Amino acid sequence: MAGRSVIYVIAGPTASGKSARAMELAQLHDGVIINCDSMQIYDALPILSAQPTHEDMDIVPHRLYGALPPNQPCSAGMWRDMAIPVIEDVIKNGQTPIICGGTGLYIKALMDGLSPIPPVPDAVRAQADALMADIGAPALNDKLIAADPLMKDRFHPNHSARIQRAWEVLQATGKSLAYWQEQPLIPPPAEWDFQVETILLPREALYQRCNDRFEAMIDHGALNEVRDFKARCEAGEVDDGALIKKALGFAPLCQYLDGHMTMAEAITQSQTDTRRYAKRQMTWFRNQL
Question: Mean pLDDT, to the nearest integer, of 124-147?
């Protein structure tokens, strides 16, 4: 379509084959694959979070993979703020943006727009980072509710990214995040033409892929990766509330390393957790995208 920029969006649950489809499209359309997965955004646990291989990244440009340090919170709004300049740069270079990932809220934020929240100054964000590191998500949530009662019961007390985002907005603007969320959304550029492909496999096939992929992760060194990252956590380098610690398989493999599970039990639990997560994602994508 004349005057419009095609942006492919490859969405779907974990282990559904999104990355392979994105690679296929990228090679057909001189594409750049842009991550929209909330775990793959972090510079940690690349095997466990199924980040692209070095071989794939040598074949096709990839952006926003391993882009943030483990302690940096990342909300849908933060991801959108990072993704838009990348998309603009790809289009400017005459290439095709290919958004790939399973974090549906990121995709909706990009395609539908977000509330017109003013940018948070770096100084406010730095203060919020320090406060989160000092007192943790539950205590910051309590402070948030005391200062902004509209935020009561909005977030799980351990959801550090959302809690910190609400705190930053309150400190930066003097108004509740709830106020800004009631304002009309700021849409993406009108000339962006989103072409969405949602990969929804039959459930049993998807579950088998979940099981097989986790076993492949173990074969490719996921346990050593977890061991090293666990040591960083225990040394205090990684915050207790760091989102990357929610990566599927991390907790069970830590349980194995601590002697509380056998390896077989840790693998089985990780596969179960992955299948349950995939089921929730399938429901979300069927109803929301």
Answer: 94
List of domains in the chain = 5-115+189-198 (3.40.50.300), 122-181 (1.10.20.140), 203-288 (1.10.287.890)
Give the residue-averaged pLDDT of 159-178. Answer: 93
With 0-12 CB in 10 A as exposed, 13-18 as middle and 19+ as buried, what is 138? middle
The 10s digit of each residue's pLDDT in 55-68 is 999 999 999 999 99
Residue 197 in tokens: 């492909």
DSSP 6: E
pTM of the prediction?
0.84
Instruction: Give the mean model confidence (pLDDT) for residues 85-94.
Output: 97
- State residue 7 phi and psi, 5-degree precision: -125, 115
Contact, 180 vs 173, CB < 8 A? yes
Measured distance CA(224)–CA(235) in Å, rounded:
17
* pLDDT, tens digit (0-9, with 9 covering 90-100), for 195-227: 999 999 999 999 999 999 999 999 999 999 999
Q: Report how far residue 123's alpha carbon sits from residue 161's, in angstroms, rounded to the nearest whole number.
A: 17
What residues contact 274, with CB distance under 8 A and at least 6 apart? 14, 15, 210, 211, 213, 214, 248, 249
Report whether 136 contacts 204 (CB < 8 A): no
Q: How confident is the model at residue 1 (pLDDT cuts 50, 70, 90)?
A: very low
